[in-house]
Amino acid sequence: MQIKIQPMGPPQTNCYIVTVEGKDLIIDPGIGATQWVLKNAKNPIAILNTHGHYDHIWSNGALQEQLNIPLYVPKADAFMLEKDPLGRKAPKSKADVLVDGDQTLDIEGISVTYRHFPGHTPGNSIIEIGDIWLSGDFLFEGSIGRWDFPYSDGREMVKSLEKALTIKKDFTVYPGHGMSTTLKAEQKNLPQWISYIKYNRYR
Length: 203
What we know:
It contains six helices and 14 strands. The protein is of the alpha/beta class. The termini are far apart.
């Protein structure tokens, strides 16, 4: 497995190209990602979004048009691709495959698991490929995703963090912003985040 990473746009949202057996999966193509992806993805087979916020989906449509490959999106966030809830006027796109909850997919022979961790958004998910997590805006190095946006939910975030604590296997975590970390390292911080969200009445 090979992983290419490039922070995109003012939010510096990490766009990833994950290459498995010569096939490229494009993860969260944000603002200005199109040309970088076209240059660096030699055999693209799919676009995958972790969630529906503008800075993770901005270049979906342009890449769908130019590459003619399917777009996978968490079902509960699909509406965000056509109606940007943060009002940033993201170019519209439409999912080809809606991923409902926790689901393992076979994408041209590559096993890809979506793990549903709502809270940041209703459909917020990590994408698991082998021993890596592409965590979007769920987990960061030393931090977690915000739960105060439109359609965010602090109670759901608490449940998701509690769910993440139950996972025994370690993964290398590649987040939507910032540097990589590991699940085991971040699990040490999660009880404090759970307490913090509860103390602040979930908001």
